[in-house]
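Following the same procedure, backbone shapes were mapped to integers, as reproduced here:
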Amino acid sequence: MPHSADELLRRHARLLSERVLWESHWTEVAQHVLPRSDFFQGRRNPGEKHTEKILDATACLALERFTASMESMLIPRTQRWHGLRSQRAELKDDPAVRVWLDSVCDLLFAMRYAPRANFTSQTNDAFMSMGAFGTGVMFIESEGDELRYRSVHISEVCIAENAHGLVDTVFRKALLTATQAVQRFGAAVLPEKIVDDARDQPDALHEFVHVVLPNDAPDRMAWNYRGMRFSSYYICLRSREIVSEGGFRTFPYAVGRYTTGPKEVYGRSPAMTVLPEIKMVQEMTKTILKAGQKALDPPLLLQEDGALSAFDLRPGALNFGGVDDAGNVTVQALEFKGDIAIGDEMIERRQKAINEAFLVTLTQVLVATPRMTAAEAMLRSQEKARLLAPTMGRQQSEFLGPMVERELDLLDQMGWLPPMPAVLKEAGGLVDVDYTSPLNKAQRAEEGLAIVRTIESATTLAQVDPTIMFNFDGDAIVRELAEINGVPEKLLRPVAEVLRMKETMKALNPTMLAQAGAMVGGQAVRDLTNLQITQGLEPLGAGPAIGRL
């Protein structure tokens, strides 16, 4: 049933009161790690200096590297970091279904990385928010025939979970200028003050609350928003009235959490884990700076009679009374006993802990030892993937998965999806995300390596017993390796086509077959394959020619 503005605002106030402690925690993190995002306790003016509490930038730089690592391991810009597959196991190898899923995936990446979509910069902000505050929120919508992405600052958002621990409710407080409010909602539903400001003070800011929550009783017979899975309300805080009501078929917010504590809704971050270390480094740096100043510009010990009260330390200055009649110096520097090297060593240990919390040392494992062999590099990559899997895997299931679901729904609404194969439509059209990011490839690299090593061992044993090779299905092995390495389906011939090609090869002249067998692994067999099969030429004394796909 529809919700009233008062009911929604009461729930918003309750959610705000429940996160008061989080706001104080986020404020402290922002001041030491991400000062430009310190908007939790009061509004800061644009251009205001935010670095007054930072003397050591280790945590700030570590957060930047953490964000880059998340992007490069999960959503690298130069790779297809996910594919699609049918939820029905019997359709996994259906050529029409696989080609359709590949084409949809190509469309997704084209729309996602379009110049006006703003995907890259907004996901970067979301990952940075996860590293600093533990929670990153992104809003996905469509405008015309394009997708739009917008990272939402955690200070604007209150979230709630469903019974399964998934975020399905978002209250977002948004500031709109009077002109923007009139353009978005229309003058008829807005208070008179906002309409007047749109005419006289168009840049005056006004507060609105956007609420998205599950539709508890969708009207299955309705073709409008009342039949959708999620309800949407825009509430004007000035009038405490709903100015826009709508709905979504899929949840429009992708909410990622780095990790969560028991009975906690908001995420916890690497910055929160090492916040004591970060603050300690700031204080220790302050002490080291003072010690360095004392060592380089020590206090002076002067005679008590005050004759040197106007002692001048400028280069070339003349100071009378600095020596007595016997030539003894009457001024000396206060000897400083502190050991700055010990302080630097203590700071370095804590800086290392900070970098480890932000995964900097883990993601730079290959850079630290550049002369390792290829096998060592592969093993290191696999080890890194195993250590990163729990952290990165959560982002795939909680952040990227809902985002892809939302994107597919928007493309469907815009009419961009190609016609679905009949077999997939009859099966319900349900698809899953198949991640192929560098993290997943590193995790599956060991599986591919096991296949290759097994074949190598079997090849050695086959010199004694050639029938050992009968245990392997070469076509299945090649397709499995192609899937592990993320080869697009469109680059592989359909299974039926491969079978027809094999039947045709069996009909070749026996002499040519003997020659091909003798040249296995050589350039000649590749030339023969290119000439007779790929180009569709008819073999001597053989059956019909094989054409291109």
